[in-house]
Model the fold of this input.
Amino acid sequence: MNNYFELFSIKESFTQDAALVKKKFYELSRQFHPDRFVSGGTKAIEEAEKMSAHINLAFQTLKDEDALMSYLLKLRGVLEAEEKFNLSPSFLMEMMDLNEAVSEAEMSDDKAQKQIANACLQQHFSSIKKEMQPIIDAYEKGDHSKGNLLLLKEFFFQKKYLLRVQERIIKFALP
Done:
């Protein structure tokens, strides 16, 4: 089957126009809806169902920033499915402070500590986004160098790490 960008007839990019992706999704969904293939028999219906499933998966991927990054990095051969990645030591050192703040907030009833932990987390998210943007911009302009893709891979795993920390914060922040 086609890759998702080819399937949707859109540019290979880390940033997608949500309205365009949605429009293409509806067009493809109508075109390959299994009900349109009833006269073709069971095999034609099964093929349409497979194509519909592929279209749905493509849509879910293209509309989600993190899933899109994962997909594109896999497509470019720098990320493997279920890959275990070693984050840089400098990032892990930064995370020690964040994890300490989160642990203190988890054990405390002080709302201010919880807000501090969340603010620190949001600062890290913002920092990653700011560092990624020039690399994404370069990719959009045609720089598909392996070095830049490997940097995006590092940022992708950093963000995944931060999302796990965010889950911890959400758990203790809920009343």
